[in-house]
């Protein structure tokens, strides 16, 4: 594997570049050294497809074993893309030992600089407890970049997937996933979705998947409660985590740091869900609660129905569902009932204005094809 380094990186490595030509650009990467949040960072860009891999928080001793770190970073990032582990291992085997050289020419340096300008946009998503920034690597690789000829744009991630497909000569995706039934808790309505989700999905992404599945517009705060097998006592009846089955949550995952400013008198651990993957809690925990919009208080009960060992996609899909989700800011279930009453009567003087308002707030009939299109967009763009 050829790593073509900028002078700045070579100086940090204290290495002299070795003249070397690699015919297969898929095994060639350009690399640069930058500083983010006052931490040493290395950005790698694949010469064939411009896929990005980010190493963050490197220490002086880490540069002495950079060969090992680079190979592990590429491996972990591709596995996090749900690439079949056998394909990833074969790619690294055929790449061979790492050789360090100089940057090739101004064209490749320009592509490298583009990636180095993209990564800082996502500084707040960099994790401080690991060198391997697979999530930011995946996001940066989905940033559309211009073709060299100046005709249109490409997605480096999609180009990498195509190249690995040609390399492997077979389908490349294989990962562990779960099938979940998500039910919006309402007394007078039956609204649910059945979703298959890769277990390496973060809870941030999962929130976006649920938004797409129910047609919400992500206007409001949210949180997750993850239940164990222990039962709640009756004192929990007014707690946000309370459920009729009376399971007690093992953790409360919140989407906003301001949640920690409010007093927490119970013994439920609260964590910011940044970077946490479903696999940390699922499938060992089989019940979850997703609360969206603390005013209207939309409570989605989530149940793990089955585990899929060899899921052949790297994104979630909705496989079934029923019922139209309420529009945003409708005023809870009572407001939704009133909304439905008005739009079902064309003679009601508020009919036209209420119908128009509902459409503006995202209200529409459940359409599984449109839902899946929106879910795929969440993964393609890493919409956050």
TrEMBL record:
Record-annotated DUF6933 domain positions: 2-159
Highest taxon of the lineage: Bacteria
A Pfam cross-reference name: PRiA4_ORF3
Annotated ranges, domain Plasmid pRiA4b Orf3-like: 177-372
Entries under InterPro entries matching the protein: DUF6933 (IPR053864), MM3350-like_sf (IPR024047), Plasmid_pRiA4b_Orf3-like (IPR012912)
UniProt name for this protein: PRiA4b ORF-3-like protein
Species of origin: Thermoanaerobacter uzonensis DSM 18761
Species lineage: Bacteria, Bacillati, Bacillota, Clostridia, Thermoanaerobacterales
